[in-house]
Specification:
InterPro entries: HTH_MarR-typ, MarR/SlyA-like, WH-like_DNA-bd_sf, WH_DNA-bd_sf
Organism: Pantoea trifolii
Pfam families: MarR_2
Structural class: mainly alpha
Low-confidence stretches: none
Distance between the termini: 23 Å
Number of strands: 2
Largest sheet: 2 strands, antiparallel
CATH superfamily: Winged helix-like DNA-binding domain superfamily/Winged helix DNA-binding domain
Order of helices and strands: HHHHEEHH
Oligomer: single chain
Protein name: MarR family transcriptional regulator
Strand content: 5-15%
Radius of gyration: 17 Å
Number of domains: 1
Shape: globular
Number of helices: 6
Strand order of the largest sheet: 1-2
């Protein structure tokens, strides 16, 4: 396996481990894993098509996740005043609380892994990941 593929696989594995550790906490918040990612991108991406593009998910999948998030009252659809044919997405206060609680759970789980690194290694990891983004 090439270095790039190995690094990608390790990154994906860490993400998967953290998400699996938090699955029960997310479920207690009435949130599925993929719904968490959709919910987390509502504020920077107010329109479903933008959301699908940013998350690299099919529009049909995003529609299903959004339908669930609206039903749970985490997200609200509003008519866009600039274009009455479009609906924009709004994170509700309940959605904000849920997103914050889910993010805290994920952060806590990831923090357990980060404690294995020295402060300098953590700073370097953050610097390198930021550079890749």
């Amino acid at each position: 396996m090439s270095d790039a593929a190995n690094i990608w696989a390790l990154n994906h594995r860490v993400l998967g481990l953290v998400m699996n550790e938090c699955a029960e906490q997310l479920a207690s918040l009435r949130l599925e894993t993929k719904e968490f990612f959709v919910l987390g991108e509502i504020e920077p991406c107010r329109y479903p098509a933008e959301l699908a593009k940013r998350l690299m998910l099919p529009k049909a999948s995003v529609t299903v996740y959004l339908r669930n998030l609206v039903a749970k009252k985490f997200v609200r659809r509003e008519i866009d005043e600039g274009d009455l044919r479009r609906h924009r997405l709004v994170l509700t206060s309940e959605g904000r609380r849920t997103l914050d609680a889910a993010t805290l759970a994920l952060s806590s789980s990831f923090e357990k892994r980060l404690t294995r690194l020295k402060a300098q290694e953590r700073a370097e990891l953050e610097r390198l990941l930021s550079k890749l983004v």
